[in-house]
Amino acid sequence: MSLGGKRAAAKPARRDEAERPFWISFSDLMTALMVLFLVAMTVALLAITDEIAETEDLKAAREEDIAQLMHSLKLASADFPGVSVRDRVVDFGDRARFDTNSHRLDEAQAQLLRTFVPKVLAAARDPLGEKWLKRIVVEGFADARGSYLHNLNLSLQRSERVLCVLMAGPPAAAALSEAERLQVRDLFLVSGASFNALKDSDAESRRIELRLEFRELGEHRGASRQQSLDGDFRCPLDH
Question: Which residues pair with 190 in a beta bridge?
């Protein structure tokens, strides 16, 4: 107690304020959850957007690589008048035209194929070819004369004839090397189209084309066969 009078009594603390726990209001809780949700969605959308942009960039780079590879083949075809490269197809035009109802090629046509196809094989061994080239499909075509099934079989035989020409070993003129024939065996497939892709004339329709197919993003290259050539180069079409 002071000299001037009684000391003021200290105000007692309210018991309910000291012991009352802290509770966040329901509205504040919902606001906080909404903010967290919006942050999470924003992060997820940014990640998806970045992934889509990266995929589109990879697709564009793939198309550019393939265009560059096909351009190199187009430059190579300049030394072979009559052979044209468009999009992803090599068309031999009049240089490999078949007679009516025939799957045979004459010696000049065979030598042209054995001379030009190594250019395609070299492109396949190029880093861009190693990266993207999946297979090469030999497509034979027939004109509209004759039945559908007959022409379908004939077009397949024309495709097979091309492979017989390419797989022929010495003493065939301009024969491919063993390494090139192994590459043909690993890369080439045959396909036939009856009169589904006619040209302006019957003669133009009796043709062969090479269609290059490329791997998609993320598609792995299949394992190549390790066996050596069997040495039997007789064409089954001639038996």
Answer: 138
> 0.85 cut: is pTM over it?
no
- Using one digit for the tens of pLDDT, what is the confidence trace for 84-118? 999 999 999 999 999 999 999 999 999 999 999 99
Of 98, 97, 95, which is closest to residue 80 (Cα–Cα)?
Answer: 95
Query: What total of structural domains would you count in the chain?
Result: 1
End-to-end CA distance of the chain: give it in Å, rounded.
132
Domain membership flag for residue 55: yes
Place of tokens 């180069």: 233
103 contacts 190 by C-beta, under 8 angstroms: no
Chain-centroid distance, C-alpha 206: 28
Residue 190 falls inside a structural domain: yes
* Cα–Cα distance measured from residue 102 to residue 91, given in angstroms and rounded to the nearest whole number: 19
